[in-house]
Each structure stands twice: as structure tokens, then as C-alpha cells.
Amino acid sequence: MSEALWGSARTGQGAERGARHGGKRESGQRDTGTSKAAGSTVTRERGGPQRTAGPGAEEGRRWHVRTAARVERCLEIVTTGQISDPARGQGPASADQHACRRRTERALQAVAFDTIGARYGEAFPAKSGQLECGEWLLAELEPGAPVLDIGCGTGDPTIRQLTGGGLSVTGVDLSDGMLTLARRTAPAAAYHRMDMYDLGTERAVDAWGVPELGWQAAGTFAAATAFFSLILLPQDEIPVTLRRIRELLRPGGLLALGMVEADLDYAPLPFLGHEIRISGYLREELEQTLAGAGFAVESHSGHPYAPANTALPPEEQLFLRCRRTG
After folding, report:
1. What would be the CATH architecture of the domain defined by 124-324?
2. How far apart, in whole angstroms, are the C-alpha atoms of residue 102 and residue 207?
3. Before 143, cis peptide (omega within 30)?
4. Can you spell out the DSSP letters for 197-230?
5. Cα gap 91→94, rounded to integer Å
6. Do the strands 146-150 and 221-227 form a parallel or antiparallel pair, or are they unpaired?
7. What is the pLDDT of residue 308?
8. Across 45-167, where does the E strand assignment appear?
9. pTM
């Protein structure tokens, strides 16, 4: 990937290569001065009130109030453990503060995707690489084989394609809004709201009430798909999540993976009026990460892509077809 690409995300990332050899990584700083909502621009000067400009100012103000309330509630839920550990009733005093902060950040991103909804598909209308991976799975798997789609989003095209081809698909996502759309798009699949980082762990049961995706489900799935969902995790959580996915697969199970080729670690990027944080790897490092997590890469392809209707720069999408080793 050229240095011109993902330039905005590299702010605060330049020292990362050196930091990997003994220093602590530092992600780019959030820009909290300006945000976009419902077609309006909301600006806050330090010490001053919000000012909403542009068409639909009143609707923009109402949207901002609703979103702020949802974020506040989201923070309350995650930090008090009402959803994080409802079965145990554990609060933040007994929780690891680092893990709690990470879960809060992911929950806030889920709130953003609730709002983005179907516009996500409009920003990424070209799906050829994803569909080719789906064809590979349909050719490799027996009818009715169980497949786990991680970060299923709207269900289009992967769950629609795989259920239409006779596979039994389970989709997981942390965004209620995305799951609502997925149930309409591909009603034949099963869906669960949960944090993908909790796959294959006790928290799948205790926090999310999904034992079929906890440690008890080891070796259950014939294949898993994760198209541009792992990029929403910090880099140090991606290998952990890959190892947990591997445990859920049967021996020789398949993984179809979509990533962005970029040397980024949880860098902030503007996306459809929201800020999301993105991680990525260069191709060789990604293959090494997969090997370390217990996957052999059988084939890969790169697809240059320019997201539509967003401020995101052109990107190189990587699609990898992998098999569980061991």
C-alpha cells in the first residue's frame, strides 16, 4: 500500500514501528471538535455551547440528543456490568479496567453502526471478493454444514449467499441495528448479539447467554467467515480472537477472512458521519499472524477499492482462504 493511502489514519501512528521493538504503541488522538449528524454539522467551541448549522438543523439537534442518550446508556451498561456480566452481577470494581475500557469502546462503535445501518452497504457496494470466498465455502462444504459469520452486519451478501446455498449459518454482531437488518435480509440464519472477542469463552455464556458459542462449542463449526469485522479490534486482540475462532472449528475447518492491507493499530477514521477505529496488517504480517493462530493460508487475493460516499481513502482489500491446522 502506498504511503498516500490511509494518510489521515497515520496521524500519531508514525512511531509505531519503533514502538514495536520495546516501546508502547500510541494510537491517533480523537478529534472531538467537530462531528457530523443527520446531514448537519455540529460544532462545539471550548467552553461554549453547541451550534448546529445547515439544513435540517432541528432534526439534527434531536438526532444528536437521541444519540448522546444512547451512548450514555451504553457506557452505563458496559461499565456497570448489567450486560457485561449479568449472570454474575459483577461490577467495575471486580473487573479488569483495561478489558472494561476495551469493551466500552467496542460498544460505542456498535452504537455508531446502529446509526449507520443500511448506509454501510451503500459505501461498499462491490462485493466480488466476498462472494468468491462464499463460492469457495459452498464448493468445499457438505449441505447443511454449520458456518459462523463473525460481524455479520446486514447479512448481505455472505449470509444470504450461504443460506441460499444450503448451509446452516449463525451470525453474530454487536450492533442491534445491523442484526435487525440481517434478520430481514436472510431470515433462515440464526443470530446472536455478542462481542466477537468473547467467542469460545465463558463470557459467551455468562455475559451473552449463548452457550452454543462458548467454550463448550469447541469443534462445532465446519467454517467461519469474518469479513472486515476483525479490523474493528486493536491489533493485540486480533490474534486472540483468531485463536478462539480456531477452537470453534472442527479439525480442518475453514476460515474465509476479509481484511484491509494497512499498518494500522486502532487508528481513528471518519466514516459516514462517525469516527470508527481501524486496525490492519501488511500482507506478510497478516499471514504470519494467521499461522501463529493455527491457520494455514491456502490462497489470497487483493482487490483495490475506493469506498463510495465516504471520506475514507482508497484501500487494498485482502481476502484469504484459510484452513485450521492441528
Report:
1. 3-Layer(aba) Sandwich (3.40)
2. 15
3. no
4. GGTTSTHHHHTT--GGGSGGGTT-EEEEEEESSG
5. 6
6. parallel
7. 66
8. 50-53, 146-150
9. 0.73
